[in-house]
Amino acid sequence: MNIASTLLLALAMSTDAFAAAIGKGASLHRPKFSEALRTGVIFGVIEAITPVIGWAFGLAAAQYVSRFDHWIAFVLLTALGLRMIYAGVATPKVDAHEKPQRHSFWLLAVTAFATSIDAMAVGVGLAFIDVDIIPTAAAIGIATMLMVTVGVMLGRVLGNIVGRRAEILGGIVLIAIGGIILYEHLTKVTPVALL
């Protein structure tokens, strides 16, 4: 794979995490850059590790990963999204100052894992071609870290606009990402192909 292909792959692998980060940023009370960077690092590290795991599985797990990755991502993202929607509906009239300052590590890690399962499947595919997995995984991780950091800060702006319903918006975004992942795998059509 050449450098341009690696960069395009890294960008493509970070788009789901970027969308999820917007929801995460919107559900926080004016997240600081340090929180956005923390979220970006967590997502970036997980997104860099999953293609290496997939690559290591190689031929032995290729069929298993490709057959179920979309269902795992869909279930995890939908569950997280429903949890966020419930929290947004169950807590009426949430004052902006009552929103959390940061998300727990485990909530971010589970969300990051759910959005990076497709990267694991890509890693399996990379095992069949002559690819140096370490630079490729590092590019995916760095792109994800940057996109998520920007996404959280963008979510901060959206959070101010949508007010107390930001958590509901974030939940809807996560469910939509899960639905898109499932749709892409079941129909073998990417949203770009529909444009």
Series of H and E elements: HHHHHH
Q: What is the CA-CA span between the terminal residues? A: 27 Å
Mean pLDDT: 77
**Beta strand count:** 0
Stretches with pLDDT under 50, minimum 5 residues: 191-195
Helical residue percent? over 70%
Radius of gyration: 17 Å
Instruction: Please tally the helical runs, counting DSSP H or I stretches of 4 or more residues.
Output: 6
Structural class: mainly alpha
What is the overall silhouette? Answer: globular
Strand content bin: under 5%
What's the main sheet like? none
Number of domains: 1
Oligomer description? single chain
Question: Which features would summarize this protein structure in a list?
Answer:
195 residues, mainly alpha, 82% helix, disordered C terminus
In short:
The protein has 195 residues and is mostly helical. The C terminus is likely disordered.
Please outline the helices and strands.
Layout lengths: L2 H24 L6 H58 L14 H22 L6 H30 L3 H22 L3 H4 L1
Helix pairs in contact: 1-2, 1-3, 1-4, 1-5, 2-3, 2-4, 2-5
Describe this structure in words.
82% of the residues lie in helices and 0% in strands. The protein is mainly α. Helix 1 runs antiparallel to helix 5 (166-187), helix 2 (33-90) packs across helix 3 (105-126) and helix 2 crosses helix 4 (133-162). It is globular and about 50 Å long.
